[in-house]
Amino acid sequence: MGLLDDKVTIITGAGRGIGATAARLFAAEGATLVLASRTASEVEALAGELRAEGRAAIAVAADISTAEGAQAPVTAALTEFGRLDAAFDNAGSGPFPAPLAERTEAEWDAVHGVNLRGSWLCLRAQLQTMVAAGRGGSIVLNSGVGALLGGFGDGTQQAAKHGLTGLVRAATADYAVHGIRTNAVAPGVARTSSTEDWFAAGPEFEAAVSRSVPLGRPARPVEVAEAAAWLLSDRASYVTGVILPVDGGTTAARTFL
Questions:
Q1: Which site in 134, 144, 209, 215 is 20 to 30 Å from 177, CA atoms measured?
Q2: 3-state SS class at 9
Q3: Which residue has the higher pLDDT, 31 or 255?
Q4: What is the pTM of this model?
Q5: CATH superfamily name and code, 8-246
Q6: How far is it, in rounded angstroms, from Cα 121 to Cα 102?
Q7: CA angle, 118 then 185 then 16, to 5°
Q8: Given a cut of 60, is residue 257 above it in pLDDT?
């Protein structure tokens, strides 16, 4: 049996990077998938690929920074599959790292509109649906080591990621009684299509990442997806309210600096 057998599962930000990798992994683990992204062509192609392999997957074009967009994949899950069991709220965005005081208001709003507001809107819609159904469920947010460390990357991102920690803990306090588990994965730098420009800027960035990570390399997207799959699965049935570092030891090493 797969980790996610017969679980109707939403993935936001599913068109590329960690989200697309998670879609392929979750499908292999037996999940029935609702794939959401702002870019319809990406998730439609991915859903088609998975269906061609005999998996159950549908695509939803949605901007999760709006209430309507956050609700859209939930409505699609209920309409197409009759229920919602799990969600990986993975959608996020961020600019190239820069000092906090150099950020503009527009950059702040862009980062928080997706990473914090969008995650809250998705979480709200998913929790309401799971409570109404009365069967419990599991939700995992994609956060980052910026939620656990100061001075790592970019202050606008850190503020949003710290906000996600608050959402996870509040949801645990409010909804564990309904059998709903809420956790987050906190990756370090992962090498994806979204971060490739950072690595392409010059060898100094990759060298700095390698120096900061005890395992000596950035994360592979599948390593983050595997952690999320476990948290969503029944094998993590007594785990809730956790921010799980998937960072190659970065947070552990920083503790002693």
A1: 144
A2: strand
A3: 31
A4: 0.93
A5: NAD(P)-binding Rossmann-like Domain (3.40.50.720)
A6: 28
A7: 60
A8: no
